[in-house]
Structures are given as C-alpha cells and as structure tokens.
Model the fold of this input.
Amino acid sequence: MKNMTLLRAENASGGRLCGAFDGNTELGRVVIDSRLVRPGDLFVAYKGEKVDGHDYIAAAFAKGAACCLAQRIPEGETRPILLVEDVQAALEKIAADYRRDLDIPIIGITGSVGKTSAKEMIASVLQQRFRVLKTEGNLNNQIGVPMTVSRIEPEHQAAVVEMGISGFGEMRALTHIVRPTVAVFTVIGHAHLEFLHDRAGVFRAKTEMLESMDDNGVVIVNGDDDLLCALKCPQKKLTFGLGENCDVRATDIRADALGHLACSILYPGGRRDVQIPSFGKHMVYAALEGAAVGLALGLSESEIIRGIASYETVGSRSAVTETGKITLIDDSYNANPDSMKCGIDSLLQLPGRHVCVFGDMLELGPEEREMHREIGAYAAEKGVDLLLCAGPLSRELAAGAGDCARWFSDREELLRALPELIRDGDRVLVKASRGMHFERVAEALKQL
Done:
C-alpha cells in the first residue's frame, strides 16, 4: 500500500502502535493467513469460531510481516502491533484511507447472480488497454474487499472489485471503502432472502452502493431486470440486456455443440459480432457488461471484441468438460432459483439427453421449499430428461419435477447411483449451493 506507513495506519484506524517500530515503515498487502505473508505485509489477526489469528502473530512476523493488526498482544511480543478494539472496523478504515490516494477507474460489481463472471469478463476487456487489478477468488465480502483494495499498486491503471453481501448495511460499508467510479449491477434475484426477505429487499441492499458514489460516476444496470431498469440515480445510467430498450444489447445469439456462444452486440453508434468462449445464456450478459464498461471508459471496438473473446472460465462456474463419456457442465460453485433456471435453459440448447444433477439452494428464507418445488417443475416443463437431486430441500425439487426425477437423501447416496444412471453421450449439468460441496459430484462424473 503505497504511502501507507505505520503512523498513517495508526491514525486511520484510531488504534495504538505498540512494540518496537519505525513509524515511516510502509505496509504491503493485507493478509489474514499467516502462511501467505510476504515481507512488509500487514497481518490481520481475526478471531474466528475455530481459529484465533492472534495465535499466529509470531508466525506472521517470522514470514516478514511489517506489523500485525490485533485486539490483544500475545505475551512477550515486542514487535510492531497496531492494537485496536475491533480489527474489522480498523481494517475498513485503513483500506478506505488508502483508497483516497488512488486516482484510477475502479469498477464495483454487485448483484444476485453472475458477479464473478462479470468481474472476469470486465477485467478481460479492460486488460486490452490497462494494467488491471481484479478481485482474487471469493474475496468479495467484508474481509475480502479491504484485502483487494490493499493490493492496488501504483502500476495498476484500473481495478475491478467484486462486492458481495448478505445483509442490510454491508454494501454501505463496502462502498465507503471502494468508492467505485463505475457501478455494475448484474441482476436482482432470489439470493440471501433469509436476510433480505424479498427482491425489493435485495434491491435496497445492493443499491446502497450508490450512496458513496460521486455524481459524475457511471451506473451500469441490467435493463431486462424490472427493478434495475426503473432505478433512478444522479449518475449517468447505462443499461444492458436483450430488450430493445437497452443501450447495449445482444441479438442473434447462437451456440456451438459445446454451448460456446456468439452474438451481435448493438450499442449507440455501432454493431459488432463477438465470440464468447463459455457456456450459458448468462455469459451473454457478462459480455454485455464487459462491453458497457469498455464503452464507458473509452475503449475501442477492437479492444472490446478482443477482450470478450479472451475470457477464461474460472473454477466450477459453467466449466464444460468432454470426459469421453459425457459432456459435463460443472456449475457447482453456487446456486439460487435464478441461476438454476438459467442453467436449465442453457443446457437444453445442447443436443442429446439432458441430465440435471442438483443439490439444495441455501439461504432462501421461509419460502425455500416452494422455490425448490418451482425449480423442479420448471425443469420438467422445459423437457429435462432426468433430474437427480440430493439433500433435504432437494426432495421438493424432485416432487416438483415428478416422473423425470430421482431423489437421494444425501450426496454420498447420489454418488453411488451415478454409474447406473448416466449414459454415454449425456449432457450433464451439476449445480448446488456451495455448502453442498457438489464439486465432488462433478469430479465423480469426470471419472465415470
């Protein structure tokens, strides 16, 4: 963190430096895992349910940490400790203070579905002109966002920050840190309803992002989403989607045998054909998000097209694998009703027998069973040939689907049944909430 000295961090956090220290020492990245510390880093000692970071302060110093942010000092420790009452609140203050020095475009991304795909696509587009810092892995929450901001170095010319929340007020805190110059809203869907209650609640929580944005920023929203389309804001608003009302829209969408997409993107003053090297209708929206951000930041048509074509799938997010027996679409990273329907629609664009292997969707609140039953009925209505479900809530998926479904009480029972149920040439979609660990199901399918 350029120019973030120990004394500046002390002033920003409201804490107190203890031990032997040089106040002019400049801090590096924010790190919460002592094993990942590099010389000069700021180690943050979080106390979790099972692990207390304070027990690893000595290990962090041994790896070269310049300072540790902590709520207590281990006995006998004489090296630099920034002592605070609340490490989370202090970290947010330090990151927000550091952000004030940064004079680059920072794109903040939120929404119920597709944040990571949008982040990767937007970064791929911007990398055609800029040196870009983007959120690593799933560092998109109250801890991860300050860590991401701390990694923005002087050589970076733009940053793409994914911002995930599950409750009211969280986005307000994240936006105070990030202060995005461009805000991207993917969709307002049925995620985290256990805490946000309904789509209107999701909308209110997500759009807290606008409170700390400058009026001269750009707000890019999904014009096919009824709530986002109606959003009123003082910033310049740009819409994307499939509807004719959208400023940046896609037409002539087509897919090859592996589901990789192509389409035409229309925007004010032009139309260009693009190739999207990924599976799923949602990736058309990701391409539109990348194009809209590129246009907002003045990139050329060729840079935008090249950036979209350079997109690479990340982890278990619509990753397509030809196993030699089946075509596997591993989308096991996460799930909610909106992404489930999108996955079903995309699967049915492929030729062959269509098999969905679904697990529970979590954090949906009091209507969770009804929502599972609705997805099962949707799969049957659309023509899925076989729906395999595992988990207590997924019993409702099977009930909604009827004769095309098989339900298993848990993941292990499902795994034992797969060899008899999966046929050569099947197109198989695997999807569940992250807590169901269906990446193990995807791995088993690869081994058939």
Remarks:
- The chain has 16 helices and 20 strands.
- The first strand starts at residue 16 and ends at 18.
- The CA atoms of residues 8 and 282 lie 43 Å apart.
